[in-house]
Amino acid sequence: MFSHQTLSSRLLLVLMPVLAVLITNAESSLPSNETVCTVCRILVSEANWAVEQIDPNKIIEHGSFRVDPNGHQPYKKKKKYARSESYLEELLEDICDKFRSYAELTTQPPLESKHIVRWQGFNKERLQSKDLKLDYDVGKNLIYKCNDFLEEHFDDVIDSLQREDIKNYEHFICGEEAAHVCTEEQMSMPMMTLPEAPEDDPNDHPEDDMEVEEPHPDEVDRTIPIEEKMALMDQDKEEEEEEHEHITLEEYQKAKAEVKDEL
């Protein structure tokens, strides 16, 4: 016969997988594979935005500094600082904390669905959250999912972000070549974003106790002069629109219906 302690131990071993599933599902009501895909897409979006804030004329030298018999350094190469390994490694160290600015949005019936959205803009501008059902705890919990993702795909992300020949980093890293955690159907649906909140609406704000992300210590040094930034915005407008596929709720629902019709 089994002792009471032995029976308790066996019962705990049986229940542990069930408890693990319950704890995992409590973090987000999205399916696990969709959660990983969403985490990847958000991470790449955040990384790309940070890279774009750096002066494109800022250059870093890398490679071998050996001198040839003629006194030259043919092995030394120049690279944009924004795409350098040293900067990207520094960037990814705390990028998962950006998920504090995200929440899970539950849309209203009859097309009820759940999406991870930013409740605060990239420049900390307030987004419209009034009358929306947002779960801010989900964003905080996704920090752990983000860390797990980077632990497994850190090198893939770094190697991909260093390249300058990739047209769409989100598709390349999450869906095509590197991490490959998103299906073609998932990548066909643009990420949703909230519209900017009216300045004269004091009631349109998230919970008062939400933590606001702190700027990077070198944020000031990475700011592009306004004249140069305006010129770059005109030059790269089409590229940026394809890179950041963010749409409103109404546009998302319309796109989702079109994808289902095609399938």
Strand line-up across the major sheet: 4-3-5
Report the end-to-end length measured between terminal Cα atoms: 58 Å
User: Helical proportion?
Assistant: 40-55%
- The assigned structural class equals mainly alpha
What is the subunit arrangement here?
single chain
Main sheet characteristics: 3 strands, antiparallel
Low-confidence stretches: 1-26, 215-226, 240-244
Share of residues in strands = 5-15%
Tell me, briefly, the overall form: elongated
- Rg value: 22 Å
- The number of distinct helices, counting runs of at least 4 residues, comes to 9
How many structural domains in the coordinates? Answer: 1
The average pLDDT is 74
Structure description:
The chain is mainly alpha-helical. The protein has one domain (28-262). Helix content is 48%, strand content 10%. It is built from nine helices and seven strands, in the order ααββαβββαααβααβα. Helix 2 crosses helix 4, helix 2 packs antiparallel against helix 5 and helix 3 packs antiparallel against helix 4. It is elongated and about 75 Å long. The model is unreliable at 1-26, 215-226 and 240-244 (pLDDT under 50).
List key phrases describing it.
three-stranded antiparallel sheet; disordered N terminus; 263 residues
In short:
48% of the residues lie in helices and 10% in strands.
Helix-strand layout with pairing:
Elements: H1 4-27, H2 32-52, E1 59-63, E2 76-80, H3 85-93, E3 102-106, E4 114-118, E5 133-135, H4 136-162, H5 169-176, H6 184-188, E6 191-192, H7 226-235, H8 237-243, E7 246-247, H9 249-262
Parallel strand pairs: 6-7
Antiparallel strand pairs: 1-2, 3-4, 3-5
